[in-house]
Amino acid sequence: MATPRVVIVGGGFAGLWATRALRTAPVRITLVDRGNHHLFQPLLYQVATAGLSAPDIAAPLRHILRKQRNVEVRMATVTGIDADARRITLDEGDALAFDYLLLASGATHAYFGNDHWAAHAPGLKTLDDALDLRRKLLLAFERAEAATDPAERDAWLSFAIVGGGPTGVELAGTLAEIARHALRDEFRNIDPSKARVRLIEAGPRVLSAFPHDLSATAKRQLERLGVEVVLDAPVKDIGANGYVLGDRFVAAKTVVWAAGVAASPLGALLGAPLDRAGRVLVQPDLSVPGHPDVFVAGDLASLAQADGKPVPGVAPAAKQMGRLVAHNIRMRLFGGTTQAFAYKDYGNLATIGRMAAVVDLGKLRFSGLLAWWFWLTAHVFFLIGFRNRLVVLLNWWWAYWSYQRAARIILGRDEPA
Amino acid sequence: MATPRVVIVGGGFAGLWATRALRTAPVRITLVDRGNHHLFQPLLYQVATAGLSAPDIAAPLRHILRKQRNVEVRMATVTGIDADARRITLDEGDALAFDYLLLASGATHAYFGNDHWAAHAPGLKTLDDALDLRRKLLLAFERAEAATDPAERDAWLSFAIVGGGPTGVELAGTLAEIARHALRDEFRNIDPSKARVRLIEAGPRVLSAFPHDLSATAKRQLERLGVEVVLDAPVKDIGANGYVLGDRFVAAKTVVWAAGVAASPLGALLGAPLDRAGRVLVQPDLSVPGHPDVFVAGDLASLAQADGKPVPGVAPAAKQMGRLVAHNIRMRLFGGTTQAFAYKDYGNLATIGRMAAVVDLGKLRFSGLLAWWFWLTAHVFFLIGFRNRLVVLLNWWWAYWSYQRAARIILGRDEPA
Asked: Which residues of chain B does A395 touch, with a Cβ-Cβ cutoff of 8 Å?
């Protein structure tokens, strides 16, 4: 009998953890990803805000998996999935046959039907997004310095981050810190600390996945850093020169989208039932209804926990799903029974800015400096690759000590918006 | 009397050193650059070959100059120079008046009238060039791994670097090292160490600015690293699938241009006499004939030394020119006599690859491991910014110890060529 072929699409937390969990399985694995790297997404906002370089939070998939001889890594985009014929097609025209498939292509931003906002309010999902955003944020201060019209100058110094989840909170807090500290003394015509950094949330509180008291703490910490937090305020429109809040237009040259995610479009290629966000409604064992050998894991999978709440779209859930899919593929190989997914929630962390974070470990909740140290330690610990950890620690130590940002380099040839 | 206005175009070695040398002068300086950063160009090949991140070798001009209160930094492109009216115009439409002008906008690549080669053989002058080149080099191995046709696979594994100067030698040596060491064990269908890395030089030896014996040593060191050195071989044509050498077409998907530089086009805007490479023929005091208050320094200036040889286009010469222009502007301010430029040559270093370099200090010449340590120490010492030095040292220590490259991340959304 030929060695069973496993195709895994996506080298994020779900796909990479599944691949590694299959290292001793008698299978041939092909890991397909559009990029060449695994990305440590929890620190992506640091690349966007010029604290880290792109390679600091990414490692080549080939390098991570070089010693796992049953894996072949393929950099390509999936263009079709035929679950019945057990085949996926790639952008280069060729196809990969599989006996087992894991689809773990994650999520992208969603503008809730307002796709024309995308041009004016970029989101943050990939390293390219982060470098584009860094360019946009740093250029805004350059344009403000060069502006001769006071209204134009103010519009360049007006920043809005839409969405009060972890990404929005991190971006707003860090941007306020940059304006107040990192850019001090560097401009002659503007005072960067007068920049207006607004965090806009449609719901009644920031970090809604956290308990109410930690949301309130996060809001206070943001305000202390200089962020203006606006709650219960859905954005009505976004254009090149500002946004509409309620019935009022606010001039702002820089709007960042941190409000919504939708599943990767690959879910739709599967032909399986999807939820409203485009995620695949999976069986308890993470397989696709009617296709017991096709699995979905990570942000692309839609599954309820025992208490009815959805499994959250966070890295620990993706890793746990990836490992369970590996286990269930082994069960199928050896004729065993697949196991249902049960999310183990070890807690929830969010950072806000300099020495400010919130930690929710269930019974134990804390915030401020201690939470920030806890957050920092956990994130450096989970970073893949020995060298990256050292460089990230060195950058943070330097940033902390100097109030500076290490990666304030504007890259890219495109003309600014 | 109003404070005299000095406009300096270009934040490279010449422009930045002139700016700093004017820190106590009673002038108002505007430093104009297209980018937001000073670039440590001698290490640019390390970014292209994935050893360093872009921000490791660059620092924001604003940050470097934040404490020098007589300077304003302006990120803009110069579109016109009127030396008689003492005014330059910028891309955003506004103009800057000056009493003294220093033009130090450097050099760009030149294809000697074969501009259609540019699309197939990119050069290396800016950080964006380096990231494009990194992408191209890393993608070639990905394409080779995915190729099903053996001839196509070989073409993806065939690399040519055109030009045997310091940049060509560094790129060829490092690329051979990557193919042989960094990528080991990572591919399943190809053997990266079988990649063909060719260094093609039209003249009779590599590193022609060095003494003959060091050129010969450099060639031997390159060959030991796995580079095929081809001398006396002008390239006749370059296309998407290969190049023509003599009357033979060689299949190669990746050709890099390190063969020629031309002066920045801003020299032509000045209306002064230029040499064949487009550089401005300056007076001995670095002023422009007929415009004693307009100076040119760095790679854009064309000047002969006392022995008739041209001042070389290297960082030490640019710094020395920048400082002399600052001195001569002071002389003009106070009615003194300007001084003629005399290049102080402290020696010439070139690195070749792992533990291989050549050093020419006039009477003292050496190569190999000792030269490599000398090169490394000198380059880290001259890197601007305390933090960058630490990060670069850490990266090199890690690369040396692990044979790995820290920045092997493919960035950019464009489709590969």
From this structure: 391
